[in-house]
Specification:
Layout lengths: L1 E5 L5 H14 L6 H11 L6 E8 L2 E11 L8 E9 L8 H16 L3 E3 L7 H7 L18
Parallel strand pairs: 4-5
Antiparallel strand pairs: 1-2, 2-3, 3-4
Length: 148
């Protein structure tokens, strides 16, 4: 069985391990300053970003980072699942499903308008998993990086 709970400061070593694996999957090398800032933001109640972890057999095996934000189409907030990662040995055991179902429950309780996420078009495994929850909505994402 998988339990999903809020990220705690005691989870730092596990979070860093999973975060490093997630970044490696996307071939991204983040500076230590960004990693440290992300960890700090995940625990700052003034920042609308939070983390949850999945625990299976006493081990932290998954993480999720969610950004809460207003939108122009409703008075209810939206939630954006920015990062979702499940440790490779734990995949296929329902960990990812437990995380998303947990977030859906949080959204119902908090009155979010919607929970959204995206993945790369070529990530077939992720797309098949996500489409068990809902179909892709047909929108195309564009990214401009003015600070890069």
């Amino acid at each position: 069985m998988t339990d999903v709970r809020a990220l705690e400061t005691a989870d730092e070593a596990d979070w860093r391990r999973l975060w490093a694996a997630y970044c490696a999957f996307y071939r991204t090398d983040l500076p230590d300053s960004v990693i440290a800032a992300t960890w700090t933001r995940l625990h700052d109640p003034a920042v609308p970003l939070f983390g949850h972890v999945a625990v299976r057999d006493g081990n932290v095996v998954g993480l999720a980072h969610v950004l809460i934000h207003p939108n122009t189409w409703s008075t209810a907030d939206d939630a954006y699942l920015e990062d979702l990662y499940v440790d490779e040995p734990a995949r296929g055991a329902g960990v990812g499903r437990a995380i998303i179902e947990h977030l859906i429950g949080l959204g119902r309780a908090a009155g979010w308008r919607r929970l959204t996420w995206h993945t790369q078009t070529g990530n077939r495994a992720a797309r098949a998993f996500y489409e068990a929850f809902c179909p892709a909505n047909g929108w195309v994402r564009y990214v401009v990086e003015p600070g890069a």
